[in-house]
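Quick log. Single chain, no ligands specified.
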Amino acid sequence: MKHIKLLILLGVVVAAISCNNQTGSESTELAVPVSVENIKLKSIQQFVSTTGTAKAVYDTELSSEIEGNYLLQTNPRTGRKFQLGDRVEKGQVIVKLENAEYLNGLNIESTKLNLEISEQEYEKQKSLYEKGGVTLLEMRNSEVSMITAKNNYESSEIQLAKMQVVAPFSGIIVALPYYTEGVRVSAGESMVSLMNYNKMYVEINLPEKNISEVTTGQEVMITNYTLTEDTLTGHVTELSPIISDETRTFAGKLEIDNPELKLRPGMFIKANIITAQKDSTIVIPKDVIMTGSRGKYVFIVGRNSAANDRRITTGISNQDEIEVTEGLSQNDRLIIKGFETLRDNSKVKVIL
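-> predicted structure:
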């Protein structure tokens, strides 16, 4: 009988301990570890992204206009013959072509002398006409002779200039076909290619949906995978008003400032066309936003180390960030990690 009472008493004690443990576990909630950042006002840009190939604004290939013996000229900057990569100034002679027969046919000296004689004769006839010594017709005839002589001389100078290959703008030699010095080259042979890529352009095609967002004059941020630390600036300079019925895109052109020549012709670039910008506004990472039946919300750390959900209204955005126009305040402690399993008033523990 004593053993039975002892067993009953032991059962009651065990049941009481079990009940107490269960009640304690139900009342104890584990704190969820989270990372936070204090919300501060900052700027945000919204943009349309596109890609393309950078090309030089100034680009030309110069060919020989006459037949002649090839003579590559010396670069005064280096003291040696011109080479690939050399910089040339506008008007600088890169190649000369010697052709004695062609030069003799121009009669430069005689056309120049004839011009001088015609000018003197016209001045004489003009003076005599003012004194009544010759008729108006005689003076006009001398003027016609002077103009003809002037045109002949200028034509000879134009033909003479064809014996030289001259840089039409300041730039860099990007192609220089090899010819043996003094060899005879035909008219139309490629002599040199020049580029000036202080300014560059990119032809782009944008989706139809962006036609109301993108306008000429908008700033563009340019990046290239070989220039990861450098961002160049440019602008939208041209836009087509029509949509291609084949690609559902519209064409445009960007101009890029490249003063340090970091971007090279032919490079593949990414362009972010800035379509909207806000300064001193609340900006948060896009990936912390949750969506529920009542709309978008995020979690912040409130009083007593509890997570509070905040319904938010958003504004402009880009690939990584979004503006919050309602629902958050400056210095709110936004939960950026560990928010996935939280509920309103969940206990949290802030970790680094």
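Confidence is low (pLDDT under 50) at residues 1-27.
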